[in-house]
Design a protein that fits this description.
Layout lengths: L3 H10 L15 H9 L1 H10 L3 H5 L8 H24 L10 H8 L6 H19 L7 E4 L3 E4 H23 L3
Helix pairs in contact: 1-8, 2-8, 3-7, 3-8, 5-7, 5-8
């Protein structure tokens, strides 16, 4: 989504907060991992308070709640795959993808909320397992943001979860 470049710059400074969701880039790596680990429960609770129709209702945001849910599941799955490659095949390239094209190809807006929550839970588990195979100081050559560390990426993913959990809540609350 559009905030990614700004967030990558913020991730490097650690002293700032996201102007949209108030995420603090000073978050510890452990707290970042815990924030991601809590995402399935947090989002299951948010969606259980709404109906399926509400999850699909367009808002002032670019996507409906169900689309953000599927986006998060895909982001965590892709990051898990990248961490696994970094750990087990460090010479492999980390390949860029376009989140808008992925959303279109996968039809996020038409997907099932129940299946999205299931996918998020599994993607989170895989992300946690893969994150445990890398070291926070390991270099991570991001296809868009250049040279980072695994710690930077852990914080970026925590921000992605926090930011889009907020987007989902805004969607479910009517915008």
């Amino acid at each position: 989504m559009g905030e990614a470049v700004t967030c990558a710059a913020l991730a490097r400074s650690y002293s700032r907060r996201c102007p949209e969701c108030d995420f603090s880039w000073a978050i510890s790596v452990g707290n970042a991992i815990n924030l991601v680990a809590a995402a399935p429960t947090r989002l299951r609770m948010a969606f259980s308070a709404s109906g399926e129709q509400l999850a699909r209702t367009p808002t002032v945001l670019p996507w409906a709640a169900v689309s953000y849910l599927w986006h998060l599941a895909d982001v965590l799955r892709i990051c898990a795959e990248r961490f696994w490659a970094l750990s087990h095949d460090p010479e492999a390239a980390i390949v860029a993808y376009d989140s808008e094209q992925l959303a279109e190809a996968r039809g996020y807006a038409q997907q099932s909320t129940a299946a999205g929550l299931w996918a998020l839970e599994r993607a989170t588990g895989d992300w946690l397992a893969a994150a445990a195979t890398v070291h926070v100081g390991d270099p991570y050559r991001h296809p868009e943001f250049g040279q980072l560390t695994v710690a930077d990426v852990l914080r970026m993913i925590a921000h992605e979860v926090e930011h889009h959990a907020r987007d989902i809540q805004r969607c479910l609350n009517g915008g």
